[in-house]
Design goal:
6-stranded parallel β-sheet, 188 residues, alpha/beta
Length: 188
């Protein structure tokens, strides 16, 4: 109920969310956005709940070198995060072997498709070609996927709608608790 669609108009912007550490793959996000022709390149918002200061310096220097407009936000409230998801065309989520992440679910609950890395827990939450796209950890593939999705606003909107419906039907707290209880019952 916190993460929901607000009706905000989408901007030419993408978002990536997570702790500002090397394991979250923000360098790959910046490199992928940076490979897009400057006249077509979206702005990038990176939202973090914790910051490794060396990583922040590295990422800012990388963004400057690649002429990627990036805005960093740390420790924002959920209301602001919801608005950022709603303003963004898509969420780019590229952590290294993340066992499970809430970011794709939050994004999809806000009606924003996810471009995620085809690894670990991301495959559990993002339904390829339905609620977003899963790609290999490759700058060119990710950059092409960003362009492809940006050029198909109807496809993005459909993925966003399906993402919200998917979260509602498959990822409610009630459903999750019942699934855990079922597993625990079978284990005893």
């Amino acid at each position: 109920s916190v993460f929901r669609q607000t009706g905000s108009r989408k901007e030419r912007r993408v978002i990536s969310v997570g702790a500002l550490t090397p394991q979250k793959g923000f360098d790959l996000v910046i490199q992928s956005v940076g490979m897009i022709e400057s006249t077509r390149r979206p702005a990038l918002t990176i939202v973090s709940n914790a910051v490794n200061s060396m990583e922040e310096v590295y990422l800012q220097e990388l963004a400057n070198r690649l002429s990627v407009q990036v805005d960093f936000y740390v420790g924002i409230c959920d209301k602001t995060l919801v608005e950022f998801y709603n303003l963004s065309l898509l969420t780019i989520y590229l952590p290294l072997m993340e066992p499970f992440g809430f970011v794709p679910l939050e994004s999809m609950a806000c009606g924003t498709p996810v471009l995620g890395v085809n690894e670990a827990g991301v495959r559990e939450t993002v339904v390829h070609e339905v609620t977003g796209l899963l790609v290999d950890r490759n700058v060119s593939d990710i950059g092409r996927a960003i362009i492809q999705l940006m050029e198909e606003p109807n496809r993005l909107a459909a993925m966003g709608s399906r993402g919200r419906a998917y979260v509602d039907s498959q990822w409610s707290w009630d459903r999750s608790v019942k699934a855990i209880e079922s597993c625990l019952t079978k284990a005893t």
